[in-house]
Amino acid sequence: MSIARTLWQENADLAEAALRHPFVQGIADGTLDRDRYVGYLAQDAIYLEAFARAYAIALASAPDRAGVEAFAALIGGVREELRLHDGVAARWGIDLAAVQPKPATLAYTDFLLATAATRDVGTICAAMTPCMRLYAYLGQSLAETAGPGPYREWVDTYAAPEFEELARTLEGLLDRYVRDQATAAAAYRRAMQLEVAFFDAAAA
Fold first, then answer.
1. What residues contact residue 16 under an 8 Å CB cut-off, 6+ apart?
2. Of 81, 125, 131, 171, which is the active-site residue?
3. How far is CA 71 from the centre of its chain?
4. In the chain, pLDDT over 70 holds for what percent of residues?
5. Which of 80, 78, 73, 79 is nearest to 59 (CA)?
6. For the chain, N or C: smaller number of CB within 10 Å?
7. If we measure between CA atoms, which residue out of 181, 180, 135 comes closest to residue 154?
8. How large is the greatest C-alpha to C-alpha distance in the chain, in angstroms?
9. What is the pLDDT of residue 92?
10. What's the angle, vertex CA 85, arms to CA 79 and CA 86, rounded to 5?
11. Which residues fall within 8 angstroms of residue 113, CB to CB, at 6 or more apart?
12. What are the residues whose beta carbons fall under 8 Å from the beta carbon of 69, sequence distance 6 or more?
């Protein structure tokens, strides 16, 4: 079994906690308060900018051309996510640039950027993979039951085959570059914990 698949299975408890989270379920059934969703999108935009920077550091550290090309494609995926956020913000009159990061957002972005700056490429992948795999899992899990509510675009974005392909690309890089599985496991677990904490903050 691949390292990425093993780590995902080892963190199934946190994946299920995220899926059952009231915030996520509110997105799925359309009952989530609009202001909470707007606040979440603004924080997520801050997070995604840091996520793109971490990818850029990984790209610069990639030991082979395959890694360079894969990380470049993954950065493109983040750009598409940010465009989704920008589109919602424009429709709803939200100034994303005026938003300040919450403590949960800073905890996650600081973790990502510190890992990217001080760790090897395999550990960077371990810290970043949970976001991609978790959101693909949430989107796919909710796609068949979510209604045509105001947040259906969120579900469809993460349920899309294109997003699944990006998640698999990053998992492939994780399998390719990890050298210390214990260190990778710790980074992966920490990122999963921060994902759930991000939803906690969004619901507060």
1. none
2. 131
3. 15
4. 100
5. 73
6. N
7. 135
8. 47
9. 77
10. 85
11. 50, 53, 54
12. none
Determine the Cα–Cα distance for residues 1 and 140; give it in Å rounded to an integer.
22
Q: At what angle do helices 22-29 and 121-142 cross, to 10 degrees?
A: 50
Confidence of residue 91 (pLDDT cuts 50, 70, 90): confident
Please, what is the angle between helix 34-61 and helix 103-118, to 10°? 10
In angstroms, the CA 158 to CA 138 distance is 7
Candidates 154, 126, 124; CA nearest to 32 is 154
The yes-or-no answer on residue 125 being catalytic is: no
Catalytic residue, chosen from 81, 125, 171, 195, is 195
195 is catalytic: yes
What's the pLDDT score for residue 122?
97
The Cα–Cα gap between 25 and 18 comes to 9
- Burial (CB count within 10 angstroms: exposed 0-12, middle 13-18, buried 19+), residue 193: middle
The CA radius of gyration of the chain, in Å to the nearest whole number, is 16
Residue where the block lists tokens 């994946």: 15
* Fold classification of 3-203 (topology level): Heme Oxygenase; Chain A (1.20.910)
Average pLDDT, rounded, for the chain: 94
